[in-house]
Amino acid sequence: MYAIVSIAGQQFKVAKDQHLFVHRLQGEEGASIEFDNVLLVENEGVISVGVPAVKGATVSAKILSHLKGEKVIIFHKKRRKGYKKKNGHRQSFTKIQIDSISI
Fold this sequence. Notes:
With 103 residues, the chain is mainly beta. The protein has no helices and ten strands. It has one domain.
């Protein structure tokens, strides 16, 4: 059984007991959350597609930790002008574990 669910503006294919890194979510570590914007559910070969979401389908997950991704370096330069600027950015992520998919 798997589902395609929209989490924080992105679509993910999820299955039970899967670990996932998503954009930062509100909530404490250890809290359980539910996602009701399920776009597709597959159960034993039967596929249910929502318009735009499957009615009554939910995906429940548990927040494991909040963390940051790897640093991305942004470098701007204009040649022959002596202009250089270097910035870095680390995206905030939340690691979740999918507990169950219910139809």
